[in-house]
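Researcher: Next entry: dITP/XTP pyrophosphatase (Paenibacillus rhizosphaerae).
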Amino acid sequence: MIPAGDTIIVATKNKGKVKEFEHAFAPLGKQVKSMFDYPGIPDVVEDGSTFAENALKKAKTVGNALGLPVLADDSGLCVDELEGRPGVYSARFAGEHATDEQNNEKLLQMLEDKKMGADVQDSLLSPASFVCTLILYDPATGGFIEASGSVQGWITADRAGSGGFGYDPLFYLPEYGKTMAELTMEEKQAISHRGAALRSLMAKLTP
Ligand SMILES: O=c1nc[nH]c2c1ncn2[C@H]1C[C@H](O)[C@@H](COP(=O)(O)OP(=O)(O)OP(=O)(O)O)O1
Ligand SMILES: [Mg+2]
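Model: Predicted structure:
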């Protein structure tokens, strides 16, 4: 049930996600609308304990309000040395309305504090993974399809790159010798948690 028509509504207020969805859906001839196109829809309180719970809450709240099928994305960064944090709290790690920059600072600070005293002078601070859960929800039936993806890398103290968004400049991919923020949109889509989740969702939609 890929929503019919030439528009797909994504229940997000994140401009970085919007760009990635636009890039992914353009080849399918679908234009992306986001919460920037529906300013009347109130913020969804993301109080779930899993990415799936939060994605479903965003999808249902927005889909029911609009009476149209919507796609929602809940995603985040899970850092091994921090026992999986910030996880579902990634967006507000440094506070309720934290900027990407503030969240990145807090993450590096915590990891560097933790590493103090260790003899390793390594810029790679901890293994980590990005995780994304997508939900496509249809308010006409109440039904939804869920798909997830993840990608493994390392948190680096040597931040680099200006592409992408969020924690991308800190997320180092050893096999590329680059951070996620140094990849092109095509490259990021090919390996990212969101790219993987989108491919999984597509596979579930087209039997
Ligand atoms: O590809 C990514 N590259 C870098 N960082 C990323 C990525 N994907 C998620 N992240 C980080 C950003 C944010 O700190 C959190 C998502 O939080 P999340 O609640 O899903 O999104 P959000 O609040 O920015 O927008 P919205 O809820 O309106 O979709 O994880
Ligand atoms: Mg959010």
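Model: Note for the record: The mean pLDDT is 95.
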